[in-house]
């Protein structure tokens, strides 16, 4: 087949024209950005703009302006800088290629296929990437005309590079131009403030092909949640499941039977089966909740007569606690680390309990669900997704211990108080701390003036103590 050869001078002329076009593009982008900033009032020392951007003068007008979302100028500047850097690198690459060609033999030529590949890899793709970056930049919007115009832009949009994050946090307006069912004209998708601090990890998490299978990266999402990026964004990809998933057992069998190994994705755990999780080895991947995957041992919990080595004074039985409010305990929350045994035991008493769970080294969430119970995948950072005065009981064990900061604990306890109904029970189960810190933690629990229904302090060791209590929330009628 006859191949078409292009002369060297023609290619050099084409590259020179490309440099001129790229230079013109940079000038146009710079002028348009400066013009937009000029219209917004940034180059001018305008008092209204100063109040808005720099927070000068606490007047009524300044307060009204401060209520408006601030436009993230720094993020916009960074995004424009990224585009200019890409164009600069492309120009340098083209100049280097021209000099390289000048050194080569004047009679040398390249084939059409080689020329096409060079254009695609070295020119078209970098230009397309710069074009996409320019299209993603969101310039500030103005409300009103003239000097009284105010900036109206949602923050954070220009902070992120991955387009899927930017689409997620962009407000979604009503298609019919009316307020929606929530009484607003747009919907804002929330992300935690820690998402900005963990920008790289969040962009990795949100970098996927829309509609395809998600990466096996649930542990990345959990790491983001624990570090304050909670809630993490929704994703438009399909969650993976075990390739050998089996039908779960009926509810009358699943409560007290170890689930099938095949129903869990083990790739992110140190263990690869439940036998390993039950073994007493240091490499099983988790340290909390010792023995909680052994259902024979789990059956003995909260049943005083069957407690191993006898029952301690801090071990309250479920029968004794429910007897405090006969017929009134119907729904509750178990806040701790475990495989849902407390909820399973309460189910036998016709009480529905939701169990909080994080997969801290082991598949706690999966096991709770496979037992036929409800796992709530939340962290300590998050406000409980329940309405005020709704829970009959909140039970906590194995999670809130003497490691927790008192201020953090205060926020958590106030949230528990919010969702616990008047007359509801707060069951603090085997809370342990250093003996010298006991008074501080006792104050934390007693500050709400709950009625003591059960209260017991027991030595755990020479320097540590257990505290168990059942407290009843007062009516607080206003």
UniProtKB/TrEMBL annotation:
GO molecular function: methyltransferase activity
Regions that span the bilayer: 14-38
Coiled-coil residue windows: 73-107
Alphabetized UniProt keyword annotations: Coiled coil, Glycoprotein, Membrane, Methyltransferase, Signal-anchor, Transferase, Transmembrane, Transmembrane helix
GO biological process, one term: methylation
Pfam families (alphabetical): Methyltransf_29 (PF03141)
SUPFAM superfamilies reported in the protein's UniProt record: S-adenosyl-L-methionine-dependent methyltransferases (SSF53335)
Subcellular location(s) per record: Endomembrane system; Membrane
InterPro entries linked to this entry: Prob_Methyltransferase (IPR053223), Put_SAM_MeTrfase (IPR004159), SAM-dependent_MTases_sf (IPR029063)
Main location: membrane
GO cellular component: endomembrane system; membrane
Top-rank taxon: Eukaryota
UniProt similarity note: Belongs to the methyltransferase superfamily.
UniProt protein name: S-adenosyl-L-methionine-dependent methyltransferase
